[in-house]
Specification:
0% helix; Rubrerythrin, domain 2; mainly beta; elongated; 71 residues; 3-stranded antiparallel beta sheet
Length: 71
């Protein structure tokens, strides 16, 4: 999902917003509430969703119901 950078022309507040490419651009400043946001031209930034690998329990103390030492 792309990260867009915005600046409010009324209060000069700057921030980044992660949104879909198909989403409409933001118009109202979250800081002052005025509809004077402008999208800035900046270096491309893209963030992929990551899935962490599932870690198997490594304790081996026999406390878990599925532990091999309970068998």
């Amino acid at each position: 999902m792309p990260i867009y950078e915005y600046r409010c022309e009324a209060c000069d507040h700057r921030f980044e917003n992660r949104q879909k490419m198909s989403d409409p651009l933001l118009t109202d400043c979250p800081e002052c509430g005025k509809p004077q946001l402008k999208k800035l031209i900046s270096a491309g930034s893209f963030q992929m969703k990551e899935k962490a690998p599932a870690a198997a329990p490594q304790c081996g103390m026999g406390m878990c119901p599925g532990c091999p030492s309970n068998q």
